[in-house]
Design a protein that fits this description.
With 296 residues, this protein is an alpha/beta fold. The chain has one domain: Rossmann fold (3-Layer(aba) Sandwich). The chain has eleven helices and nine strands. The strands form two sheets. A seven-stranded mixed sheet has the order 3-2-1-4-5-7-6, sandwiched between helices. It has a two-stranded antiparallel sheet with strand order 8-9. Helix 3 packs parallel to helix 4, helix 6 packs across helix 8 and helix 7 packs across helix 10. The longest helix has 19 residues. The two termini are 34 Å apart.
Length: 296
């Protein structure tokens, strides 16, 4: 996966700045979160400790707490400002009764003990991590045997119109890059997860003009934060040329903004696996049969 990597300093700064207005423009993120939460209805789990990685302003946090009232919820985000909004969303009485934890940390360096959580839930966060393998390794480390990872992220076709419009202007990187679904699935296997399931869907938002789209991306902190981005100001002529290039996508008076949504879930094995010399994870067939039977 030779993609430009997000700059963590820029990611943190972008979401710190976006926290106060995030909910104004995060319509898509809430919709994806709702769809991801619905997938939990199909999972036979009764978690005692739930870790939400990338809690944002807490839209999914409160729903996870309501779905699993017996569980201790840990809301984790790289931006302290986001966690402040999550904390407010709960209210003091919910904090007192449910004792949620609020942790400001990086998904690639989780400050949790090994095998300490039963469910890792992450809504559109992994795309901001520098290395999916490192992220999955951390998820695998903190999950208990038989634990569940459930996540959503963006795929390569996300903002393809905006990317094409900029490409008509210059060769600089103006739009974030996203990892392919199949590479993410391979990453899960490389890091010791079992029974990975990956799928995708396309969601298209429409705008009156491209400036509004770019403003929404900035409002939620989702503008270009990759290390390979152009660091200077974009000139007025280039910006106008990009806006003109975007116009070729206009249909029925509106401009589309496409998003490829990738969903994934996988389990941690109930029993230890054996790593072969070539890096392949070996799972005894009898063990695999027993684990599949338990999850049905």
């Amino acid at each position: 996966m030779n993609l430009p990597l997000p700059d963590k300093r820029l990611v943190r700064a972008a979401f710190e700045k976006a926290a106060s207005r995030y909910d104004e423009a995060a319509v898509l993120q809430r919709e994806i979160g709702t769809r991801l939460l619905e997938r939990l209805e199909l999972m036979k789990i009764t978690p005692q400790r739930v870790l939400e990685v990338g809690s944002g302003t807490g839209f999914c946090s409160t729903q996870l707490a309501a779905r699993y009232p017996q569980a201790r919820l840990i809301a984790l985000d790289i931006a302290h400002g986001m966690l402040q909004y999550t904390r407010r969303r709960f209210g003091w009485w919910q904090r007192l009764r449910r004792r949620p934890g609020f942790v400001c940390a990086d998904a690639e360096a989780l400050p949790l003990a090994d095998a300490s959580v039963d469910l890792v839930f992450s809504n559109v966060t992994i795309q901001w991590c520098s290395n999916p393998d490192t992220t999955f390794a951390e998820f695998r480390r903190v999950l208990k045997p038989g634990g569940l990872l459930l996540f959503s992220t963006f795929g390569p076709d996300t903002l393809k119109e905006l990317r094409a419009a900029w490409r008509a202007v210059d060769a600089a990187m103006h739009v974030n890059a996203f990892v392919d679904m199949h590479d993410l699935g391979d990453g899960l296997l490389r890091n010791g997860f079992a029974d990975p399931v990956m799928d995708r869907e396309d969601i298209v938002l429409t705008y009156q003009d491209a400036r509004t789209l770019m403003s929404d991306l900035k409002t939620i902190g989702a503008h270009n934060v990759n290390r390979g981005r152009h660091s200077g100001l974009t000139g007025k002529n280039k910006l106008n040329a990009m806006l003109a290039a975007y116009e070729r996508f206009r249909r029925d008076g509106r401009l589309p903004a496409s998003y490829e949504i990738v969903y994934g879930h996988a389990w941690t094995p109930l029993t230890p696996q054996r790593q072969t010399r070539d890096g392949v994870t070996a799972i005894p067939f009898a063990q695999l049969q027993a684990e599949l039977k338990q999850r049905r």
